[in-house]
Design goal:
174 residues, 4-stranded antiparallel β-sheet, 4 strands, 49% helix
Length: 174
C-alpha cells in the first residue's frame, strides 16, 4: 500500500471531541473518523505541485501558501492523533493542522494561482515535462499536466470549502 497525503476538514469541536476521547480511552483511541466528503487524498501530488510552482517562478507569498496547504503547521497539538495503536499517519511525519483563519488565508491565495498557465509552460512532451519536474513525475501514467491540474484543483476546492465553512484542516501521510 502506497503512502499518500491525506487532508481532512473538521470543526474545532470535532477536534476537541477527538482529543477528549483519546484522553478518556484506556488505549488513547480518539475515534478519528472524519466524514468521507471532508477527506481528500492528494496522492503523491504535493511535492510535484510545489516543483511546478518553483519552475514557474511563483512569488514567495503564493509559494509559501501552497507549502502551508500541503505541509500544515505544528502549532496545533495533534499528538493524540499520533499515538499507537490509533495513529492516523503511522508511516509519515506527525500530523499537522491549519486553523480556520490559516485555512481561509491559504484558500484565498490558492484561488489566485493560475495552475493551467504554470503547467502550459512545461515542455509539450510528457516525458520531457516529467523529467523537468522530477521527484517521480515520470511514474505518472499519462499526461503529468492533467494529473497535477486535477490534484491542484481538488486542493483549491477543498480549501475553499473549508474556508467557507470556517473549518480547520488536518494533514497527514498514510
Amino acid at each position: 500500500m502506497a503512502v499518500t497525503q491525506q487532508l481532512a476538514r473538521i470543526s474545532v469541536k470535532y477536534l476537541a471531541d477527538c482529543r477528549r476521547s483519546a484522553g478518556e480511552s484506556p488505549d488513547g483511541d480518539p475515534h478519528w473518523d472524519p466524514q468521507p466528503a471532508d477527506v481528500l487524498d492528494l496522492d503523491w501530488a504535493p511535492i510535484l505541485l510545489e516543483r511546478v510552482c518553483e519552475l514557474a517562478g511563483v512569488d514567495d507569498v503564493h509559494l509559501d501558501a501552497l507549502r502551508q496547504a500541503i505541509d500544515g503547521d505544528s502549532a496545533i497539538d495533534l499528538s493524540f492523533l499520533n499515538t499507537h495503536p490509533h495513529a492516523i499517519g503511522p508511516f509519515g511525519p506527525a500530523p499537522t493542522a491549519l486553523s480556520a483563519a490559516q485555512t481561509a488565508r491559504v484558500s484565498e491565495l490558492l484561488v489566485q494561482m493560475n495552475m493551467p498557465t504554470m503547467l502550459a509552460a512545461l515542455p509539450a512532451d510528457d516525458t520531457q515535462a516529467a523529467s523537468l519536474i522530477g521527484y517521480g513525475a515520470d511514474k505518472i501514467v499519462g499526461d503529468p499536466r492533467k494529473y497535477l491540474l486535477k490534484h491542484f484543483n481538488a486542493l483549491r476546492e477543498f480549501y475553499l470549502g473549508a474556508s467557507q465553512r470556517h473549518l480547520l484542516i488536518v494533514l497527514w501521510w498514510d
